[in-house]
Amino acid sequence: MYFEFLDRRKVCLYRHGTNTADFLVCIGCGAYLGAVSFINKSWMAVLNMQHLVETIQLPEPYLVAWKGEGVRERILRRSKTWTPVRDWSNYAEFSTETVYY
């Protein structure tokens, strides 16, 4: 996976809950774009499919319930289901002022 932002100033990183991932949020409209997490020495990500540039064929969505999931279980699940990030070196370019914890 690769993230490309036309204007990084309009994207903030938001960390909450278990503090195990950074959620990418549009400052202008509040849309959740995806999330990144450093797992097993590599960046992994999940994407909000509503914001893809190109349309792709996907299976039907299904409901999930993560309430009560512990940190260890959450990281293990993400390591199996999230996608490796091709390049997250631009992560450092996000201002620390826009990273909320």
Plain-language structure description:
The protein has 101 residues and is of the alpha+beta class. It has one domain: Metal Binding Protein, Guanine Nucleotide Exchange Factor, Chain A (Beta Complex), CATH 2.170.150. The chain has 1 helix and 6 strands; from the N terminus they run ββββαββ. It has one helix spanning 71-81, and strands spanning 11-14, 22-26, 32-39, 42-47, 83-84, 99-100. Strands 5-4-3-2-1-6 form a 6-stranded mixed sheet, covered by helices on one side. The longest helix has 11 residues, at 71-81. The two termini are 25 Å apart.
Distance between the termini: 25 Å
Strand proportion, as a percent range, falls in: 25-35%
Count of distinct strands: 6
CATH class: Mainly Beta
| Poorly predicted runs of 5 or more residues | 95-101
User: Level of helix content?
Assistant: 10-25%
Query: How many DSSP H or I helices?
Result: 1
Count of discrete structural domains:
1
Shape: globular
CATH fold category name:
Metal Binding Protein, Guanine Nucleotide Exchange Factor, Chain A
Give the strand order, joined by hyphens, for the main sheet. Answer: 5-4-3-2-1-6
Structural class: alpha+beta
Instruction: Give the CATH architecture.
Output: Beta Complex
Q: Over all CA atoms, what is the radius of gyration?
A: 14 Å
